[in-house]
Amino acid sequence: MGCGGSKDTDESANKNRTTGTNQKRSVNSTSNSNRGSNKTSGAGRGRQSNNTNKSNGKRQAPPKRNKVDRQPVSEKGYKKRIRDQLWLATDKKDEQELDHAICAFEKNKLEDNGDLTDAKEKLSYLMLRKEIRDAMLRRHPGVLDKAIQNVEESPYQFNFQHYLDRARELRQHLTELDTYRHDILEMDQSTISEIRSYHHPPDGVHETMTSTYLILGYKECELTEWSDIQCLLGRYGKESLMREVQNADTVNMTDQTASRVDELQSKFTSDKIRAVSCGAATFYVWNNNMCDKFSKDNADGKQSKASNEAPATPASTKGRKKNKG
């Protein structure tokens, strides 16, 4: 009986093992088919996303590649150091350091598994940001127009929208200033000399020229006597009145200056000033326009300091698995 019972038990165990193996195979085949379908659907989603981005025309953000899944590069010694330096430079915001790292990478002909592509894209981004920042600081209409155009034609227009709005606003501001100063800059030097030649200026001329120099940043205590105005009118070169008007900007004015200019010129009209001096009337109109623009800009909040908000930056190398040399 013992031997017979043992044989039956062995046969039963073999059947159980066979059944379990078949069940495992069935489960594995089912999971494999599910994974295949998931990959197919994921690929479909990826293609749909890419088509959507293409339809938008502009990339709304720099592409973020899957850095973790990149093929590792077997490097040692100086090659590994060069790649590490490229990673570090890509994470920073120093254009010069990143440019040097890219040059070293290319000079040594290292394999690009996406690291060099990311670095070049980051450098392009940083250089574009530097260009529009410098253009706003320089405040030159031609340079500003070029920087705005480059941003609008770049794939980073969305990222630079903050800078782009400020640059367009500044461009409009400079256009208005150019319009106001046009008549003064077209004025002959002989007209300035005529105003300066007055020993006793007609009513309103002294007040008008005092207002002009107040807008240019001079203190009223330096302008109380007509001889003070004559001395300033006699300057040439970079200190000449024409050059100072060309560089004048309402951002350098204060509420006290605008109020004082309005007070000085409120006693006269442009027609009255023009009757005694056409040149002084031109400055009278410019003074009024500058004060009006200052008040309007203050009301619109355009004179307030720009926020320190920075646009989004391209994908950095943070979280990237370094290659083991």
Briefly characterize the structure:
This protein has helices spanning 2-56, 77-91, 95-107, 115-138, 141-152, 161-185, 189-196, 205-215, 226-233, 241-246, 255-265, 270-276, 278-300.
Descriptive tags:
13 helices, mainly alpha, about 325 residues
In words, what does this structure look like?
There is one protein chain. With 325 residues, the protein is mainly α. Helices cover 67% and strands 0% of the residues. The protein has helices at 2-56, 77-91, 95-107, 115-138, 141-152, 161-185, 189-196, 205-215, 226-233, 241-246, 255-265, 270-276, 278-300. It is elongated. The two termini are 68 Å apart. This is Cytoplasmic dynein 2 heavy chain 1. Residues 66-77 have a biased composition (Basic and acidic residues). Residues 1-79, 297-325 are annotated as: Disordered.
Order of helices and strands: HHHHHHHHHHHHH
Beta content comes to under 5%
| Beta strand count | 0
Broad structural category:
mainly alpha
Number of separate helices: 13
User: How is the biggest beta sheet arranged?
Assistant: none
**What is the arithmetic mean of pLDDT?**
77
List the helices and strands and how they pair.
Blueprint: H1 2-56, H2 77-91, H3 95-107, H4 115-138, H5 141-152, H6 161-185, H7 189-196, H8 205-215, H9 226-233, H10 241-246, H11 255-265, H12 270-276, H13 278-300
Helix pairs in contact: 2-3, 2-4, 3-4, 4-5, 4-6, 5-6, 6-13, 7-9, 8-11, 8-13, 11-13, 12-13
